[in-house]
Amino acid sequence: MLGDMKKEMPNKFIEQARVVLERLEEAGYAAYLVGGYVREMLKNELLPAMEGAAEVTDIDIATSAMPEQVRTVFADLAVIDTGLQHGTVTILVPDPVEVTTFRVDGDYSDGRHPDSVRFVSCVEEDLARRDFTINAMAMDLRGTLIDPYGGREDLAMGLIRTVGDPEERFREDGLRILRGLRFASVSGYEIEEKTARALHEQKDLLRGIAAERIFVELKKLILGADAGRIIRRNVDVLQVIIPELAGMKGLDQKNPYHRYDVLEHCVRAMEAVETTEENAEYMKLSALLHDVGKPDTMTVDEDGVGHFYEHAHMGEEICRRIMNDLRSDRFTKDRVCTLVKYHDLHFEEDDRLLKRWMNRYGVDVLLEVLALKKADNIATGNATDELIHKFDRIRDRIHMLVDEETCFRISDLDLDGRDLIDAGIAEGPAIGHVLDRLLEQVVDGNLPNEKAALIEAARKM
Cβ distance 5 to 143 under 8 Å? Predict the structure, then answer.
């Protein structure tokens, strides 16, 4: 028994869920909070040394009420039919709270959706259809926990275990294989032995899962604090969705600069790369795939040393294919391919070089290439402290150049094409060429960024 749920609900979404639970109970129906919040709240109670319960915005409630009965109870609110065939409606309180009638599922002939559902009156029967024990718990308004499959104990032991027979659970929906890996990556938990064995044995079920669903889980997986461990242990599973990982694993680089095979090097880069909340997904993906072009470009010289000429360009081509196969959105695909293509860019503590790169690639992309380059060097296992500090100094210098409003783009020049035309230079392609040459001279420090000086220099061109 946990305390009154009113004391356990730390954010507005849970407060709105409490309103839904109260009204359903007052109408005579059983109602329970299920899913992620119950798991995260228990994790916070059992492992107080860890970070607190995650901020949960997707609130799920299971109830004995049928959808039309839920509609009656909440007749004064907007109710959306989000999945009537599965007994689900969404109540706007004003934020969305999903309410689903207790149910059991029929066969999963398509490996994703139940062919039919049957509504039941008992929450325990409803919990039996769920994927993992840590997700198969329910809690009522007073904090009473319903836990028929030992989810609380598995949380305490740090275990990911399927509800019932793992082979059956995975056959119902092959995406659960990847979800299990994702939960282990994010939580740092171990996958229970039988669940792990079934996960490997049935990995080919992933071939029948829509790429969009796989990509969602993959992105969550690589953001987990324990993603490196999970990838290392489950390469055979992940290569079902990214076959190129097989060629990277165990590929000796035969180069004194690298201590590790290609895949281990890339996993270490993924672990080391510095990210922000906005770019974490594509930075982690870029780091994991940055040397995907090496298996196809490796040569060994007469001294037995490995070389990978043009591997970054090859990597870009391969990444584009991978991202297309995963049905990636255009921005993520283009950004990953760009970072992989330029991850070998040469950096020096030279303002002229940095301003050229800032102009060519843009500040945001250049800083991300630099972060990937730093992680790449760390992941060799041979980077010196001085080399790492050099990357940090370059990063700080780029920020300083931006803060100083340094001229590094044509738009930063103290004139534009109209000024050149007014100064007597004919309209046409020549205007663009003159602006390019003026910018080059300003960036190199040979010309001040002042209109009069720029016009004079333009007239001499």
Answer: yes
Cα separation, 48 vs 44, whole angstroms: 5
User: Per-residue pLDDT for 408 more than 90?
Assistant: no
* Closest of 254, 262, 247 to residue 300, by C-alpha: 254
Quote the CA–CA distance of 337 and 257 in Å, as a whole number: 25
Record the pTM: 0.86
CA dihedral 390, 394, 399, 403 (to 10 degrees): 110
Residue whose C-alpha is closest to residue 125's, from 151, 105, 97: 105
Which whole number is the average pLDDT over 395-407?
Answer: 93
Under a CB-based contact definition with an 8 Å cutoff, are residues 182 and 43 in contact?
Answer: no
Residue 190 parent element (H or E): strand 190-191
Model pLDDT, residue 45: 77
24 Cβ partners below 8 Å, 6+ apart? 30, 31, 61, 63, 65, 70, 73, 99
**Mean pLDDT of all residues belonging to the chain:** 91
d(C-alpha 297, C-alpha 311), whole Å:
6
Q: Which of 27, 28, 6 is nearest to 17 (CA)?
A: 6
- Structural domains in the chain, sorted by start: 5-157 (3.30.460.10), 271-403 (no CATH), 410-460 (1.10.246)
Q: Which of 184-188, 299-303, 376-380, 446-450 has the lowest mean pLDDT?
A: 446-450
**Distance (Å, whole) CA 123 – CA 101:** 9
